[in-house]
């Protein structure tokens, strides 16, 4: 049976050979973006193609914006699946129900459109298969959604009334090659442009610009299909295309993105060139650029916008690059397809290493043990080679692109080998990446995703003995790690240590940059299943370092600290700091340094500039003497703060932007004064002890300083499981979130054993345990007072066999809604958990309780602040309130809803503030880890059920009407900018 074009395995017919992409030349062009006529049909052939012929009246059709996806514009709906195909696997056939969008646009040529020459029609991206007509003549059809396709159309153009018709099928044979973990979003989602092609215009050209770090020279050769001259005025270069020239240059690196403007002039066209000189090679088993080892501090970036899907405007692309740069990120893997080419222009200009990945993934074939996998079937090889060529030809002139990636999650096969061979023959100046083949037969590096720390350490020692010997000679990267789904990822610092310790471990790319939550009137942000999909993978699509609106998450703040390019090490005895430049190329001349001593919560009592030699080269260290710390009274704490800020004009951030910081305790935390001596008294209705009144029957605290408590303090071990607590089904190890629930840790019962009054204390003895289990926690609350303060000591003794870590261990209490302003001395200002605390700095923080919430798209445990010495909840910024001092320091969380409500919520909009401020004072929190698609919590961050004792001292905080209200802290994530 002969298959129709959308189902045959060919990449298409009628288009021009792929070539270099450039935004503008002196040739005229016409953008065909804008409002197009649109008609949606349920099947590929429901409507005839007469709409493409001259004179068709589409006046009754709807309209859509191009670039755009029709499913984001009210026609049909998005579908989210991770690796399964949302249609039967029967390659290359696709379902009869195949949403098909007919697009129509009429246009006139502008008045200055030259009368001579040709024209090229360019589509930068159409998902997944398009058939194209101009003025009634069929041009051809194509697949390869995130790749450009051009057609020669000069002979068909008329001055006015041109009719461009495009039929787009959601499903095609190409869909089998595009099984990336993302929303399925059909449509013409990138630009459509008509390019004038003057006589003698440029065709394809390839800029080769290498750098010899020994001589400090660059060698330039621009190969061009058409004769021409290459000029680079700044370098005095004026040579024929194809001719090499060697001159002294400054090299391009991601840290020092030096570009030289040039021109390729053919007889009929002048094409601007942006040239970056750099040489990429593997030497001694290490990836080197310009002779130096590089370390990827990377992210995986999908193209995503919560309202327009993968149709991104230039501002959004720039925002992404700027946010990355501002968070110390130096590399992007364009998971899992070539991005809009303008994004790569930004990477060239602002400086990011790029792994450019081909638009290829066949992950769904794992469901059948990779049987019939297109990448191991010669019939599909032409389509694979077409994709490789379209990526390489389009992007080959970008300095930022240093590695080509064959695709993602395709298993193994001959087709991949064919792609690698073709790429190597075409481009000898870059390396090849592919993760899915452990033999590394086709690649220049060994790459893994989600390998745990122990494995990365083994690999670092080149002791990964399970693979072929040849692989151990290769450099290593983690193309995906640190799964940023919901709260987390945890354990990044420990990976960074392994990257720093082993030359072979050249860093990695966090999965992933952005949550793909789609803006939704009811849910806030929608994820898989919210559009009624039959088959979907839920919120697995929300696993980014930035929220859908690009607000940085605490995970991004933490990552910024973990990868900061300056290390500070304080030697308390010597009174010195060692500063190490962790850049790969740059010295420190762009940074200014400061030291400051902060005494307790007061402003710096001393601060000054730190005279770091600006010429300190990459990898070099310097020891600097610090001024002596100021004298500190017995009840204050002193911290040394060290910061590195941008001190020169840059194109990626403002002056004084913080790049690196560190904090060191100079004095120990002073002991907390004991609150004892007062005798509890039993009245008719209450037991009174200092500022507290208690229920004599239950021993529960009813009022504190006269404030009635909607929730008496009591033991709490439950947290709304995070995505990383719940883990992924295919991950090894115990999935704590599920085990906790199975054990019943979300419905602990509190049995009262005794309420005892003694001379100096009220003691309440309880046992806290889940129904149906013999495990429990003996819990004793001991209350004492000095008359004005009330101290609670909690002693916990586990009983039975606890085989799981505890989610948290602490107390929870409820305050009336008025106490909605938090003020604390401790870690902040953002969220932190034991293994995600890199960005948490001790100081005085102030925030409305509403601001302390981290808005994960799927609600889950969030918002804890680490190392808190004391916290206040005030009625108003300067109002009266409750003060609590912890012994030892504690995890502080406050919110207007309960853990149970978070646990029951599916979307942000399910959470609405109640009339209680729930306060968690935790002695311990279990770590976060990365098990939603990676390793779990490292042993050192597990919270084991073990005997524990901790105390909180409550007192009244008086209003301070004269106090200047402190500036309101920025929302989570904006703090580190
Ligand atoms: C890995 C994929 O490469 C990526 O696209 C994404 O799905 C990620 O996981 C999880 O969010 S594949 C996984 C099965 C290891």
Automatic annotation (TrEMBL):
<dbReference type="InterPro" id="IPR011013">
    <property type="entry name" value="Gal_mutarotase_sf_dom"/>
</dbReference>
<keyword id="KW-0326">Glycosidase</keyword>
<dbReference type="Pfam" id="PF02836">
    <property type="entry name" value="Glyco_hydro_2_C"/>
</dbReference>
<dbReference type="InterPro" id="IPR050347">
    <property type="entry name" value="Bact_Beta-galactosidase"/>
</dbReference>
<feature type="compositionally biased region" description="Pro residues">
    <location>
        <begin position="966"/>
        <end position="977"/>
    </location>
</feature>
<protein>
    <recommendedName>
        <fullName>Beta-galactosidase</fullName>
        <ecNumber>3.2.1.23</ecNumber>
    </recommendedName>
</protein>
<dbReference type="GO" id="GO:0016787">
    <property type="term" value="F:hydrolase activity"/>
</dbReference>
<dbReference type="InterPro" id="IPR006104">
    <property type="entry name" value="Glyco_hydro_2_N"/>
</dbReference>
<dbReference type="InterPro" id="IPR006101">
    <property type="entry name" value="Glyco_hydro_2"/>
</dbReference>
<dbReference type="Pfam" id="PF16353">
    <property type="entry name" value="LacZ_4"/>
</dbReference>
<feature type="region of interest" description="Disordered">
    <location>
        <begin position="670"/>
        <end position="692"/>
    </location>
</feature>
<feature type="domain" description="Beta galactosidase small chain/">
    <location>
        <begin position="688"/>
        <end position="955"/>
    </location>
</feature>
<dbReference type="InterPro" id="IPR004199">
    <property type="entry name" value="B-gal_small/dom_5"/>
</dbReference>
<dbReference type="InterPro" id="IPR023230">
    <property type="entry name" value="Glyco_hydro_2_CS"/>
</dbReference>
<dbReference type="InterPro" id="IPR006103">
    <property type="entry name" value="Glyco_hydro_2_cat"/>
</dbReference>
<keyword id="KW-0378">Hydrolase</keyword>
<dbReference type="Pfam" id="PF02929">
    <property type="entry name" value="Bgal_small_N"/>
</dbReference>
<feature type="region of interest" description="Disordered">
    <location>
        <begin position="955"/>
        <end position="977"/>
    </location>
</feature>
<dbReference type="Pfam" id="PF02837">
    <property type="entry name" value="Glyco_hydro_2_N"/>
</dbReference>
<dbReference type="InterPro" id="IPR017853">
    <property type="entry name" value="GH"/>
</dbReference>
<dbReference type="InterPro" id="IPR013783">
    <property type="entry name" value="Ig-like_fold"/>
</dbReference>
<dbReference type="InterPro" id="IPR036156">
    <property type="entry name" value="Beta-gal/glucu_dom_sf"/>
</dbReference>
<dbReference type="InterPro" id="IPR014718">
    <property type="entry name" value="GH-type_carb-bd"/>
</dbReference>
<dbReference type="InterPro" id="IPR032312">
    <property type="entry name" value="LacZ_4"/>
</dbReference>
<dbReference type="InterPro" id="IPR008979">
    <property type="entry name" value="Galactose-bd-like_sf"/>
</dbReference>
<dbReference type="InterPro" id="IPR023232">
    <property type="entry name" value="Glyco_hydro_2_AS"/>
</dbReference>
<comment type="similarity">
    <text>Belongs to the glycosyl hydrolase 2 family.</text>
</comment>
């Amino acid at each position: 049976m002969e298959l129709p074009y959308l189902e045959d395995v060919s990449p298409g017919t009628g288009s021009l050979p792929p070539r270099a992409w450039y935004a503008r030349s002196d040739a005229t062009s016409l953008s065909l973006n804008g409002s197009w006529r649109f008609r949606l049909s349920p099947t590929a052939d429901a409507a005839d193609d007469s709409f493409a012929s001259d004179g068709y009246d589409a006046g009754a059709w709807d309209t859509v914006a191009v670039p755009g996806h029709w499913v984001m514009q009210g026609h049909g709906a998005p579908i989210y699946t991770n690796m399964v195909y949302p249609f039967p696997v029967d390659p290359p056939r696709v379902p009869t129900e195949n949403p098909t969008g007919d697009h129509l646009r009429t246009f006139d040529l502008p008045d200055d459109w030259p009368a001579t020459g040709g024209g090229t029609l360019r589509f930068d991206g159409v998902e997944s298969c398009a058939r194209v007509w101009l003025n009634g003549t069929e041009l051809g059809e194509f697949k390869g959604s995130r790749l450009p396709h051009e057609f020669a159309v000069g002979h068909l153009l008329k001055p006015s009334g041109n009719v461009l018709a495009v039929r787009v099928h959601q499903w095609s044979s190409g869909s089998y090659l595009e099984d990336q973990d993302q929303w399925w979003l059909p449509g013409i989602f990138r630009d459509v442009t008509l390019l004038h092609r003057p006589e003698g215009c440029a065709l394809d050209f390839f800029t080769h610009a290498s750098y010899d770090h020994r001589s400090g020279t660059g060698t330039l050769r621009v190969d061009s299909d058409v004769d021409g001259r290459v000029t680079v005025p700044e370098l005095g270069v004026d040579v024929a295309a194809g001719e090499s020239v060697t001159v002294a240059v400054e090299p391009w690196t991601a840290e020092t993105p030096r570009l030289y403007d040039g021109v390729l002039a053919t007889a009929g066209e002048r094409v601007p060139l942006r040239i970056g000189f750099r040489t990429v090679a593997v030497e001694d088993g290490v990836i080197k650029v310009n002779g130096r080892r590089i370390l990827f501090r990377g992210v995986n970036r999908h193209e995503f916008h919560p309202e327009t899907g993968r149709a991104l405007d230039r501002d959004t692309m720039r925002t992404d690059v700027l946010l990355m740069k501002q968070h110390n990120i130096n590399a992007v893997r364009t998971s899992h397809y070539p991005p809009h080419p303008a994004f790569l222009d930004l990477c060239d200009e602002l400086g990011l290493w790029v792994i450019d990945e081909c638009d290829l993934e066949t992950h769904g074939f794992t469901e059948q043990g990779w049987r019939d996998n297109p990448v191991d079937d010669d019939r599909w090889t032409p389509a694979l080679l077409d994709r490789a060529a379209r990526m390489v030809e389009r992007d080959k002139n970008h300095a930022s692109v240093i590695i080509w990636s064959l695709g993602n999650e395709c298993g193994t096969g001959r087709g991949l080998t064919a792609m690698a061979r073709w790429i190597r023959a075409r481009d000898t100046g870059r390396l090849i990446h592919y993760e899915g083949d452990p033999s590394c037969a086709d690649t220049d590096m060994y790459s893994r995703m989600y390998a745990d720390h122990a494995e990365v350490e083994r690999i670092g020692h080149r002791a990964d003995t399970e693979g072929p010997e040849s692989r151990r000679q290769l450099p290593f990267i983690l193309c995906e790690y640190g799964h940023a789904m919901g709260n987390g990822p945890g354990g990044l610092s420990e990976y960074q240590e392994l990257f720093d310790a082993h030359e072979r471990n050249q860093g990695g790319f966090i999965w992933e940059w952005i949550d793909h939550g789609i803006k939704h009137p009811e849910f806030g942000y929608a994820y898989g299943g919210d559009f009624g999909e039959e088959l979907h993978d839920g919120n697995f699509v929300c696993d980014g370092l930035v929220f859908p609106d690009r607000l940085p998450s605490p995970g991004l703040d933490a990552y910024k600290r973990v990868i900061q390019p300056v290390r500070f090490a304080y030697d308390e005895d010597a009174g010195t700091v060692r500063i190490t430049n962790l850049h790969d190329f740059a010295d420190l001349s762009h940074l200014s340094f400061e030291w400051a001593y902060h005494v307790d919560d007061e402003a710096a009592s001393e601060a000054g500039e730190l005279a770091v030699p600006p010429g300190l080269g990459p990898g070099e260290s310097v020891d600097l003497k610090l001024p002596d710390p100021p004298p500190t009274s017995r009840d204050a704490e002193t911290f040394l703060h060290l910061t590195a800020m941008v001190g020169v004009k840059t194109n990626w951030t403002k002056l004084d932007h913080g790049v690196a910081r560190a904090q060191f305790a100079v004095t120990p935390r002073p002991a907390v004064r004991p609150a004892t001596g007062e005798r509890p008294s039993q009245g008719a209705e209450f037991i009174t002890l200092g500022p507290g009144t208690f229920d004599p029957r239950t021993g529960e605290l009813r009022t504190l300083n006269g404030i009635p408590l909607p929730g008496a303090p009591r033991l709490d071990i439950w947290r709304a499981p995070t995505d990383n607590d719940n883990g992924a089904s295919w991950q090894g190890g115990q999935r704590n979130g599920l085990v906790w629930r199975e054990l019943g840790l979300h419905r602990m019962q509190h049995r009262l054993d005794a309420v005892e009054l003694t001379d100096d204390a009220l003691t309440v003895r309880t046992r806290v345990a889940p129904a149906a289990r013999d495990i429990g926690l003996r819990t004793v609350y001991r209350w004492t007072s000095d008359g004005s303060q009330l101290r609670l000591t909690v002693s916990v003794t586990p009983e039975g066999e606890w085989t799981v870590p505890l989610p948290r261990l602490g107390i929870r209490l409820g305050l009336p809604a008025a106490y909605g302003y938090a003020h604390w001395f401790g870690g902040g200002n953002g969220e932190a958990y034991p293994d995600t605390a890199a960005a948490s700095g001790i100081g005085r923080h102030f925030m409305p309780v509403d601001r302390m919430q981290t808005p994960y798209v799927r609600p889950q445990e969030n918002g804890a602040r680490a190392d808190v010495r004391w916290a206040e909840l005030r009625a108003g910024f300067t109002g009266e309130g409750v003060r609590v001092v912890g012994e030892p320091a504690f995890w502080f969380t406050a919110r207007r809803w309960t853990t149970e409500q978070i646990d029951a919520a599916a979307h942000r909009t399910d959470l609405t503030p109640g009339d209680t401020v729930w306060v968690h004072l935790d002695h311990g929190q279990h770590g976060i880890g990365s098990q939603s698609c990676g390793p779990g919590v490292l042993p050192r961050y597990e919270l084991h059920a073990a005997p524990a004792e901790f105390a909180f001292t409550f007192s009244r905080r008086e209003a301070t009407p004269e106090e200047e209200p402190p500036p309101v802290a920025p929302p989570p994530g904006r703090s580190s900018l």
